[in-house]
Amino acid sequence: MLDQIKGLHHVTSMASDARQNNHFFTKTLGLRRVKKTVNFDAPDVYHLYYADEFGTPGSVMTYFPFPNIGKARRGVGEVGTTVFSVPEGSLGYWSKRLTDEGAAHVKPESLFGENRLHFDGPDGDSFALVEAKGDERAPWAKGGVPDDEAIRGFHSVSMRLRDAGRTRELLKHMGYQEADTAGNVTRLAVPNGNGADVVDIETLPGAGFADLGAGSVHHVAFAVEDRAKQLEVRKALVDTGYQVTPVIDRDYFWSVYFRTPGGVLFEIATNEPGFDRDEDTAHLGEALKLPKQHAHLRSYLEGHLQPLED
């Protein structure tokens, strides 16, 4: 069993409108936009990153807003719900805030004894807030949400699978341990993680497979400290039979990708070098940053990409 993985690193999803997406995460949820850049493979599309003050791994929600993308179809083989951690006693504040902001399907729920608040994102994305005990991570203090209520980072992701067996064994190989079971949901957690320690697996035999679109998660990334740890994990996965990509430079972290038995795309991402690689911490996410291979497109992209609110 591996011990290099320290929880979630980031979650990347699809959206239909960049301005709407930016408003929801920076104004409604009060996260900080820590990077405004473009998709490596489609440079006329933003890649937006929202997180805590520093873009700490375990707090980073990222989006590809494709202007004409179709709506996602829910099903198995995907991350169903992305869950953020908030302080105990804060769900009443969030229920009013999300309702006032027009979020859909705001409703309280409980899972594994934890109080949660479910809500939809702008494209019907499935989110939840959970009151997590003892989460000492610092929130972004300038997002318009009081510190006593602000989001601390991810709590977990919940995956929907037809058959949980092989993915559960994969996660155990990656260092996760079974923590609990409730109905058709199995909870796994990684010891000594970064706070974003939990993965839930919901088993739905016979359900149809999901279609990627606006409102669905493209991939979920797990955190390792550095490139040496990443290579150790990559070798262990290859030795187990997984088809893992070579290491890819994503400017703010290094990545490898592989498809899980249940159909979900996993990424292993390094904590280094971080989001202050090309701009200072005080001004993260303000300027349009371009991968070096797309730098020659700056004039076109600055005129083409949808302007964003601060």
Low-confidence stretches: none
Structural class, please? alpha+beta
Q: What is the spatial order of strands in the main beta sheet?
A: 2-3-4-1-13-16-15-14
Strand % is 25-35%
Rg estimate, integer Å: 18 Å
Measured as a percent range, the helix fraction is 10-25%
Number of helices: 5
Short characterization:
The protein is of the alpha+beta class and 310 residues long. The chain has helices spanning 18-28, 91-100, 165-173, 227-240, 298-304, and strands at residues 8-15, 32-38, 46-51, 60-65, 78-86, 107-111, 114-120, 126-131, 153-161, 177-182, 185-189, 198-203, 217-224, 248-249, 253-259, 265-273.
What does this structure look like?
By secondary structure, the protein is an alpha+beta fold. It has five helices and 16 strands. The protein has an eight-stranded mixed β-sheet with strand order 2-3-4-1-13-16-15-14. The chain has an eight-stranded mixed β-sheet with strand order 6-7-8-5-9-12-11-10, with helices on one face. A hairpin with a 5-residue loop joins strand 7 and strand 8 (126-131). The termini are far apart. The model has no long low-confidence stretch (mean pLDDT 97).
Element layout with pairings:
Elements: E1 8-15, H1 18-28, E2 32-38, E3 46-51, E4 60-65, E5 78-86, H2 91-100, E6 107-111, E7 114-120, E8 126-131, E9 153-161, H3 165-173, E10 177-182, E11 185-189, E12 198-203, E13 217-224, H4 227-240, E14 248-249, E15 253-259, E16 265-273, H5 298-304
Parallel strand pairs: 1-4, 5-8, 9-12, 13-16
Antiparallel strand pairs: 1-13, 2-3, 3-4, 5-9, 6-7, 7-8, 10-11, 11-12, 14-15, 15-16
